[in-house]
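Consider a protein example.
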Amino acid sequence: MQITQAIDRIHPAFARVIDPGACGFHFVTSEGTLAFSDRGGAGTHWHEVGGRFEYERAIECTPTGLVIRGTLTNTSPTSQLLTGIQLLSLEFAVGRQDWVHYYAKGGVTDWWLPPQAYRTQVAYDLHHSLYVQSHGAGRSSNEDLPLLISVAEPLRAGLFFGMEWSGEWVLQMQAVGDDRVRAATQFKCPLVVASGESVALPPVHLGFFAGGFDEGTNALRRHIYEQVCPRYDGKPTLPPVSYDHWFGIQNRNTLDFLKTQVDRAAELGVEVFVHDASWFAGGFPDGVGNWNRVDAAKFPGGLEPLAEYVRGKGMEFGLWFEIERAGPDTDAVREHPEFFVETPQHHSQPFGGGGGSRHFHLNLALQDAQDWAIATVGRWIERLDLRWSRWDYNIEPNPFWRRVDSSGSIQFAYMRGLYRVLDTLMQKYPLWRVEGCASGGRRIDLGTIRRAHTLWISDHTEYPAVCRHMQARANRFLPGHLLNSSVAVERGHGDRGFDDTAILSRMLGKLAFDGDIASWSPELTRRARHWADVFKSLRHLMVQDFHQLTPAPTTADDWDVMSFNAYDGSEAALYAFSGRKAGSRSIPLRGLAADKTYRIECRNDGVRLEQTGAELMRAGLGIELNVNSAKLWHLKEGM
């Protein structure tokens, strides 16, 4: 099937403005560029004239978009080096001034408002090219989030695209004169293909929608949720309420102290209790790699007593791993020096502890190293009946890739190895959830999303408004269950600073608690339990439609109002946050059924009312907020 035929099936208006002769892909070799066009033929097999390559493409038409997969075969008698691979190129006969392009910054850790992380970027009137791309150090979302939404205003429609790749990448929109625009995807990884070898290239995801940025947001979110995100226990994944000890406690963990957190987590209604780093000898970061030695001073009987205590309180148990990195003089490096490569980093003390700049990177390009990682993590899953792991990655890969292979082609084999490790573990242990993490949200892409049930989106957990900004803005591109943020409590901190606003600011995706929650009073614990129960009753909406109802805040005075709606408009959760200015406003809603009456309950105080969908979308819901406060309403169709 040709790409234009596939697009015609899902969005005929866009198919009419695509030039079939300018659609295709290309590979760059030492001898020049090999370009392949969709013009003519069946659009599934290509043979290079020089006889070195064959390429086979399959296009899957899903209800939400296209998934384009390709396999490249080296038919020559010698190995071939590809220095550039453009997986898809589409040219549209719509003028460069008639497009608006939207993308988001990556998951960095910021300490100001509005944070850079996940902030929507807007570009229009291209005079050359817009590049959305990875950071030069190698982690996929350390610069930009690898997704792009573009709206062609004359068509009143748009497209989204991205690819399943966790290394270096580029998404491009390029002006071709004044009257055309080209969309392209490329992964920036040199690739050596041995004689006779066939290589499955990263899949490209491409979708189309009617409408503007709001419609593009929800088309992309739905596609990711339905076509990329893994299911859990045979069902679509919903976000559980979880606890993780790290932010607030860090290395100051002991069995007895953690048991007090378990008790409080059970009172809060937590469903999964996770022990983060520092369960192993040497602590974090120095002990990363001592995977077979529990810290005996903290856990004299091993981790089993903690896991059993957690399960005895009605929760599931989880454990942190950073299997791709090891500290010097750790067991992993001593026992398997052939698997690890010393990799200096650009910063001297990146983890707030010792270790300096000496780090060892696991070489997952080696199958023996992959098997070791699978066995190491698998033993702990079986030993402790783990139902969750935070899969962390606190190291930049490019220095490692360059040290092992100056051409950089090891990157492809490494990512293929990482995917094999996670795929194998998830298939073998179907009740084990993965929380993707990379110093926060620095490796978020369709490749890691396919292998994660949620994502730790940032290591910033302190200021509620920063956490709220990141969750809310990320919802423009990702389904909410992926966006894990936490109400984090420093050791011995108590209640100060924790109120409804602090908790609601972490409820715009997935809700978690961290640190010394045992220091909270019974009164705050009961209030937090109320919100945990509310979140559980509404979490099915986090993965459906998202509507930003006020402009994203740019000053400390701005309000921030958004809703999560059922696809059919029958139900919604409406969140409103004030800034430094209190007041009353009527906020028009979106995505409701105009002819239905909605029962509306404010979950802060229980106040109820009824309004029709038409009234709510035209005149709006009246909202009154104090300074720096927040409220949540639940709307549902009446009988």
Summary: The chain has 15 helices and 34 strands.
